[in-house]
Amino acid sequence: MTEQGVAVAPPRVRGGSGMGRDFFTGIGFLFRGLGMYARNPKMMFLGLIPAVIAGAVITGAVVAMVVFSGDLADVITPFDRGWSDGLRETVHVVAMVALIGVTALLAVFLYTALALLIGEPFYEKISYNVERKLGGPIEEAKTSFVRMLGRSIRDSLRLLLFTVGAGLALFVAGFIPVVGETVVPAVGVLVGAWVLALELTTVTFERRGIRFRERRRMLRQRRSMALGFGLATFVCFLIPLGAVLVMPAAVAGATLLSRRVLGLPDAAAAR
């Protein structure tokens, strides 16, 4: 099949054991990206500049949300005014935890989107160098920078709407006994992993003129691999300073993931 005149290999659908293998392969892509710090430290450290800027902005917003989470919990739970003190306190705590959870989910997405926007030249270069060291081929669609940036912003807004919608649904579900403490956090992490995989692969797919819907369709065909990569990245991003330090490696790992999904060689440079 082709997309914007660029040849794309059809993704393969895996069975159960293949899905498990794909999941760990996806995790491995992030670790391979981290290994590129040693092989190309100058380029990778350049990628830290936009990551630091985006991290400072998002950290400030998260700290503010955590500080005022108690007041916000009071605002969004007016229905408990006539309840007993113990029950009100329980609802208040659940609301605070749900708010902080949704904030973390949105923060990871907004950080990634902002870092990619600020550091587009840096991350484009990192991704391009990864592909070049893998021996190519590096197909590039003839699209102006302004148009490509516009597509990237539009796609990020789509993902933002999806993340906000999912966050609100998870927030409401957080009040369900048992489910709110067990299922909801797990689903939240998986949503964050999927959004990260979609967002971080933008650079490689956009270089080939492959639009958001097609990218999403192709990643769905290798969902386990995408979730493995996204989950490993999401967990690292939750660690203090982890998002800043891992961001360049995540772009490199997303390039490896993209090439695997596109049916292109992704292991030659590791040897």
In which range does the helix fraction lie? over 70%
Radius of gyration in whole Å, from Cα? 20 Å
Q: Output the strand order for the largest sheet.
A: 1-2
Query: Which descriptor suits the 3D outline?
Result: elongated
The average pLDDT is: 84
Distance between the termini: 30 Å
Q: Which H/E pattern describes the elements?
A: EEHHHHHHHHHHHH
Beta content comes to under 5%
Strand runs, count: 2
Structural class: mainly alpha
- Major sheet summary line: 2 strands, antiparallel
**How large is the count of helical segments?**
12
Q: Give the number of domains.
A: 1
Q: Short summary of the structure?
A:
Helix content is about 75%, strand content about 0%.
What does this structure look like?
- The protein is mainly alpha-helical and 271 residues long.
- The chain has one domain.
- 76% of the residues lie in helices and 1% in strands.
- A two-stranded antiparallel sheet has the order 1-2.
- The chain is elongated, with a radius of gyration of 20 Å.
- Mean pLDDT is 84; it is low at 1-7.
